[in-house]
Amino acid sequence: MASIDIQGVRKSYGTVPVLHNVDLSIQDGEFVVLVGPSGCGKSTLLRMVAGLEGITSGAIRIGERVVNELAPKDRDIAMVFQSYALYPHMTVRDNMNYSLRLRRTPAERMAHVVSAAASKLGLDTFLDRKPRTLSGGQRQRVAMGRSIVRQPQAFLFDEPLSNLDARLREQMRVEIKKLHRDLGTTSIYVTHDQVEAMTLADRIVAMNGGVVQQVGTPLDLYERPTNLFVAGFIGSPAINIINAVLRHDGEQRLIALESGERIPAPPRVGGHDGQAVKVGIRPEDVQISAQAEGDFAGHVELVEPMGLGTIVHLGTAHHALKAFVVERVNYPVGTNIAYRLPASKLHIFDAKTGQRLPE
Amino acid sequence: MTSSARSTSHWLLHYGLLAFYVAFALFPLYWLLKVSVTPNDLLYSEGIRLWPSRSSLAHYTFVLAHSDFPLFFKNSVIVSGSTAVLVTLIAALSGYAMSRFDFRGKMWLVGLMLITQMFPLVMLVAPIFKLFSPLGLTNSLTGLVIVYTAFNVPFATFLMQSFFDGIPKDLEEAAMIDGASRFRAFRQIILPLTLPGVAATLGFVFTAAWSELLFALMLVSKADASTFPVGLLGFVSKFSVDFGQMMAAGVLALIPACLFFLLIQRYLVQGLTAGAVKG
Ligand SMILES: Nc1ncnc2c1ncn2[C@@H]1O[C@H](COP(=O)(O)OP(=O)(O)OP(=O)(O)O)[C@@H](O)[C@H]1O
Ligand SMILES: [Mg+2]
């Protein structure tokens, strides 16, 4: 096991920059998830750690070693591909064996390690089958098995679950988490699924357009998103964003929503009088009531029951708003609803830069 | 029309067309065989019949025992076999490079390789003869192998490249991460999956070299380095054509090609990559 240190790393294809100055320190044993929309450079960064892509500038260290010029085979890392990349002409056993055979592991030890990994992943009965005879979920397990037999310095995962159906994905997510708990191997996990990111990560790295936006624990990113992108990307249903202007009225600090309504600003928020801002509030923080107990009035436009709770889409004079409530409400469309936006739950971002206002 | 009657008539049409095509394509071969077993005295006297009233293997005996044909055969096998192996080896490596690497001048190289395929080969006979003769490569099997290899590599490279393109890059990347060098990944993971492509390339080049006449005729003037297509011409004399013997030799010439395809046909079957990646 080892730490991974990424310093000032850039990547360009020809003259097209894809990664801009990425800095990231991953501790020994940590599980780090890279998330971001398609094309933001997650895979590229992961593949640079693996040695499958050259590094345009900067340095990557695995343990104490700078690996910039090291071939993938000498980096002692394992990788699970989105496509699984199983060797089709080899049995499951030989797929899992392959790395050990290349390292001239004694046959006895190899058999032991493989059968241990197979039983851990529930693959015992498939060892002599070819990959094409396996289901997607089973192939996924073989791909995992191929990585864990090696006891590498680090695991790299590139969207390993995105080809599975929702139920299986959930199940494998738990297994990956357990595996990490048992093995404690440093892991980098790429996904664009923010639920996977939230549930698996010790720390999340949110990326957009080749730039790291925020690094922190899942709850850090959820509760204190550093900019509009992170606020919008993390969380489902997505955060509400409302245009507004900051108003300093003597001692009192207010936010004037685009609708003209005024609400108290969160305590300690910075910014200046007249500053254009965007106000974010998560759907579960919007308080609604059909008894007209709220600051503002709106009406129901749509109700989405989710089982776990209900998403209520509100229409107001000036903006749309989603509220998430745990109760099973079933308001008819058009019902008048009062809502409240609690000051302590507001996220205030500068309208121009999209950055969170200092506090 | 009921649906079962419809599907029966579809079936009939389908297989009828196939049968017609097969008969059309194989008829010359049948005729080859027929003439080769027809005794000389019946060849012109019997008119057109599907099978002679009396058949004999006399032409075969003559060709095998009293002509240079066994030698021509041996030469053809050597030349075609070495050309096929050599070209496939080179094309596998260059096709892989074309499929996987971006390098400076790649476009130019592709263009150049295409250009070599555009010339009528006749234009090149004289310059190649000029080049080869001081090197002692005329009247030699080696010379033929060199020429055939040179002319077949471009197309074979494109052929192999398309097979490599069909194999996901993830596979060799996984192997490289598992601890293999690129060359080992190529040998142990990619090449076994490209066997259908290798077989197709071997087959294609072998047949091309096996039936090549122009260079075989122009670069070789002595019998001991002649290949069988040149030998076939020997049956055309100034005054007559010995059809029976020529056809017998032709049938014999089919045998190595058939054996060769029998050997590789197992690999020509596609679908080896199924299960490599999702899908
Ligand atoms: N070989 C290449 N040549 C040129 N551009 C490339 C190459 N590979 C990737 N890119 C570009 O680099 C950017 C980042 O690609 P990357 O595969 O890292 O995205 P990603 O974040 O993994 O996206 P996804 O979620 O869709 O997998 C993309 O804009 C892509 O077009
Ligand atoms: Mg990707």
Automatic annotation (TrEMBL), chain A:
<keyword id="KW-0067">ATP-binding</keyword>
<comment type="similarity">
    <text>Belongs to the ABC transporter superfamily.</text>
</comment>
<dbReference type="InterPro" id="IPR003439">
    <property type="entry name" value="ABC_transporter-like_ATP-bd"/>
</dbReference>
<dbReference type="Pfam" id="PF00005">
    <property type="entry name" value="ABC_tran"/>
</dbReference>
<dbReference type="GO" id="GO:0140359">
    <property type="term" value="F:ABC-type transporter activity"/>
</dbReference>
<feature type="domain" description="ABC transporter">
    <location>
        <begin position="4"/>
        <end position="234"/>
    </location>
</feature>
<dbReference type="InterPro" id="IPR017871">
    <property type="entry name" value="ABC_transporter-like_CS"/>
</dbReference>
<dbReference type="InterPro" id="IPR040582">
    <property type="entry name" value="OB_MalK-like"/>
</dbReference>
<protein>
    <submittedName>
        <fullName>Sn-glycerol-3-phosphate ABC transporter ATP-binding protein UgpC</fullName>
    </submittedName>
</protein>
<dbReference type="Pfam" id="PF17912">
    <property type="entry name" value="OB_MalK"/>
</dbReference>
<dbReference type="InterPro" id="IPR008995">
    <property type="entry name" value="Mo/tungstate-bd_C_term_dom"/>
</dbReference>
<keyword id="KW-0813">Transport</keyword>
<dbReference type="InterPro" id="IPR027417">
    <property type="entry name" value="P-loop_NTPase"/>
</dbReference>
<dbReference type="GO" id="GO:0055052">
    <property type="term" value="C:ATP-binding cassette (ABC) transporter complex, substrate-binding subunit-containing"/>
</dbReference>
<dbReference type="GO" id="GO:0008643">
    <property type="term" value="P:carbohydrate transport"/>
</dbReference>
<dbReference type="GO" id="GO:0016887">
    <property type="term" value="F:ATP hydrolysis activity"/>
</dbReference>
<dbReference type="InterPro" id="IPR047641">
    <property type="entry name" value="ABC_transpr_MalK/UgpC-like"/>
</dbReference>
<dbReference type="InterPro" id="IPR003593">
    <property type="entry name" value="AAA+_ATPase"/>
</dbReference>
<dbReference type="GO" id="GO:0005524">
    <property type="term" value="F:ATP binding"/>
</dbReference>
<keyword id="KW-0547">Nucleotide-binding</keyword>
<dbReference type="InterPro" id="IPR012340">
    <property type="entry name" value="NA-bd_OB-fold"/>
</dbReference>
<dbReference type="InterPro" id="IPR015855">
    <property type="entry name" value="ABC_transpr_MalK-like"/>
</dbReference>
From TrEMBL, chain B:
<dbReference type="InterPro" id="IPR035906">
    <property type="entry name" value="MetI-like_sf"/>
</dbReference>
<dbReference type="InterPro" id="IPR050901">
    <property type="entry name" value="BP-dep_ABC_trans_perm"/>
</dbReference>
<feature type="transmembrane region" description="Helical">
    <location>
        <begin position="141"/>
        <end position="160"/>
    </location>
</feature>
<dbReference type="Pfam" id="PF00528">
    <property type="entry name" value="BPD_transp_1"/>
</dbReference>
<dbReference type="GO" id="GO:0005886">
    <property type="term" value="C:plasma membrane"/>
</dbReference>
<feature type="transmembrane region" description="Helical">
    <location>
        <begin position="189"/>
        <end position="210"/>
    </location>
</feature>
<keyword id="KW-0813">Transport</keyword>
<feature type="domain" description="ABC transmembrane type-1">
    <location>
        <begin position="73"/>
        <end position="264"/>
    </location>
</feature>
<feature type="transmembrane region" description="Helical">
    <location>
        <begin position="77"/>
        <end position="96"/>
    </location>
</feature>
<comment type="similarity">
    <text>Belongs to the binding-protein-dependent transport system permease family.</text>
</comment>
<feature type="transmembrane region" description="Helical">
    <location>
        <begin position="12"/>
        <end position="33"/>
    </location>
</feature>
<keyword id="KW-1003">Cell membrane</keyword>
<keyword id="KW-0812">Transmembrane</keyword>
<dbReference type="InterPro" id="IPR000515">
    <property type="entry name" value="MetI-like"/>
</dbReference>
<feature type="transmembrane region" description="Helical">
    <location>
        <begin position="243"/>
        <end position="264"/>
    </location>
</feature>
<dbReference type="GO" id="GO:0055085">
    <property type="term" value="P:transmembrane transport"/>
</dbReference>
<protein>
    <submittedName>
        <fullName>Carbohydrate ABC transporter permease</fullName>
    </submittedName>
</protein>
<keyword id="KW-1133">Transmembrane helix</keyword>
<feature type="transmembrane region" description="Helical">
    <location>
        <begin position="108"/>
        <end position="129"/>
    </location>
</feature>
<keyword id="KW-0472">Membrane</keyword>
